[in-house]
Amino acid sequence: MAAQSPERLCFGRNMHIKQGRDFARVRREGWRLACGCLLANWQPLPSGAPTHLGVVVGGRLGNAVVRSRIRRLLREAFRLHQHDLAQPVDLVLVARASIVGKPFLGVEKDFLTAVRRAGLLKAVAQPLPLRTESAVARND
Question: pTM of this prediction?
Answer without folding.
Answer: 0.79
